């Protein structure tokens, strides 16, 4: 019996954000934008959705008088990501 | 099924992109390498060959590098767009090394006074080897790894060298452990930057 894939993570951009954050301690908004090639508006919307789901934490601060948005993955996000990858793998193995 | 494979590929590519971001410029290895190398050479020539008893005062030069190092690290952190777990581990290693180096010098110096000259160099060579080798492993950068081992071998070599000449072993450790790997790191960093 297959488990449903987490709809929050199944969107490519949200999955890309979580995949980047899983590898680092924290990342700036500009780093995520650069690596995902997403527009600032779309990225911002997807970050908020991940934040609302409790998968990532977002800290807004000022550095040298410029606003800075720092994102990091939460333990809930790590768990959801691991579960998502496990489910993906089981779907793929079943399809072979 | 294709969609599932695409998602897995996306995950893999993002993880690779995050990892590839890491780059060490080697700047502080070069700065510290030259400063300590210069101190060793000055102490050897002024102290041992020319007989200046105050030649050891040249080591105060190291303290002048500390404010520069703090300024440089703060500048790098300001430019930093991402902080990896590797960055955190490397910071901890060098902070631990700095505190240990200070404590060893202070504690041994206080306990044994002038005789410190006979033991301090082999101890420092062992100490230099630890962060150098660990950073070589973490960065997967063989020259640093070899540099760390060289520091330890030079520490063993101190058994066969007169204590008066020990300072030259530190100079050699700086070349093998910090300067050569530092310049190689810088060259790699510049190549990476050229491709960005």
Structure in words:
The complex is a heterodimer of chains A (96) and B (196). Chain A is an alpha+beta fold and 96 residues long. Chain A has helices at residues 7-10, 12-23, 29-36, 40-52, 75-95; strands spanning 24-28, 56-63, 66-73. A three-stranded antiparallel beta sheet of chain A has the order 1-3-2. In chain A, strand 2 and strand 3 form a beta hairpin. The two termini of chain A are 16 Å apart. The mean pLDDT of chain A is 91. With 196 residues, chain B is mostly helical. In chain B, 81% of the residues lie in helices and 2% in strands. Chain B is built from seven helices and one strand; from the N terminus they run αααβαααα. In chain B, helix 4 (85-112) packs antiparallel against helix 5, helix 5 (116-138) runs antiparallel to helix 6 and helix 6 (142-157) packs antiparallel against helix 7 (166-195). The chains are: A alpha+beta (96), B mainly alpha (196). Chain A binds chain B through residues 10, 12, 15-16, 19-20, 22-28, 30-31, 34-36, 63-64, 85, 88-89, 91-92, 95, and chain B through 1, 4-8, 10-11, 14-15, 17-19, 21, 78, 80-85, 87-88. Strand 1 (24-28) of chain A pairs antiparallel with strand 1 (82-84) of chain B, so a sheet runs across the interface.
Structural class of chain A: alpha+beta
Adjacency order of strands in the biggest sheet of chain A: 1-3-2
Number of helices of chain A: 5
Question: Biggest interface between protein chains, with counts per chain?
Answer: A-B, 26 and 23 residues
Which class best fits the helix and strand makeup of chain B? mainly alpha
Please estimate the helix content of chain A. 55-70%
DSSP helical segment count of chain B? 7
SSE order of chain B in H/E notation?
HHHEHHHH
Which range does the strand content of chain B fall in? Answer: under 5%
**Quaternary status:** heterodimer
* Approximate helicity band of chain B: over 70%
Largest sheet of chain A: 3 strands, antiparallel
Q: Estimate the strand proportion of chain A.
A: 15-25%
Instruction: Note the overall shape of chain A.
Output: elongated
Task: Please state the CA-atom Rg of chain A, rounded to the nearest Å.
Answer: 15 Å
The pLDDT mean of chain A sits at 91
Distance between the termini of chain B: 34 Å
Low-confidence stretches of chain B: none
Question: What does the largest sheet of chain B look like?
Answer: none
Question: Helix and strand string of chain A, N-terminal first?
Answer: HHEHHEEH
């Amino acid at each position: 019996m297959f488990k449903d894939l987490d709809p929050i993570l199944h969107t490519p951009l949200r999955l890309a954000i979580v995949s980047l954050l899983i590898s680092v301690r924290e990342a700036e908004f500009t780093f995520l934008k650069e690596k995902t090639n997403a527009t600032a508006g779309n990225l911002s919307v997807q970050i908020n959705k991940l934040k609302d789901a409790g998968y990532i934490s977002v800290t807004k601060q000022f550095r040298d008088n410029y606003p800075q948005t720092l994102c990091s993955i939460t333990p809930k996000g790590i768990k959801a990501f691991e579960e998502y990858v496990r489910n993906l793998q089981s779907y793929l193995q079943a399809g072979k | 099924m294709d969609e599932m494979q695409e998602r897995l590929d996306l995950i893999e590519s993002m993880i690779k992109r995050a990892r590839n971001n890491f780059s060490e410029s080697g700047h502080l290895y070069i700065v510290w390498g030259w400063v300590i190398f210069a101190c060793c050479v000055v102490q050897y020539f002024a102290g041992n060959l020319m007989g200046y008893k105050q030649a050891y005062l040249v080591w105060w030069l190291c303290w002048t590098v500390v404010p520069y190092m703090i300024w440089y690290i703060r500048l790098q952190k300001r430019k930093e767009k991402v902080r990896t777990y590797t960055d955190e581990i490397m910071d901890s290693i060098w902070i631990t090394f700095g505190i240990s180096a200070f404590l060893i010098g202070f504690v041994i110096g206080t306990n044994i006074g002038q005789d410190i000259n006979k033991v301090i160099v082999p101890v420092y060579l062992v100490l230099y080897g630890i962060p150098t080798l660990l950073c070589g492993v973490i960065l997967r950068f063989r020259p640093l790894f070899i540099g760390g081992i060289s520091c330890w071998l030079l520490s063993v070599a101190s058994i066969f060298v007169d204590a008066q000449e020990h300072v030259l072993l530190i100079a050699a450790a700086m070349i093998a452990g910090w300067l050569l790997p530092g310049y190689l790191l810088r060259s790699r960093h510049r190549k990476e930057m050229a491709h960005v």
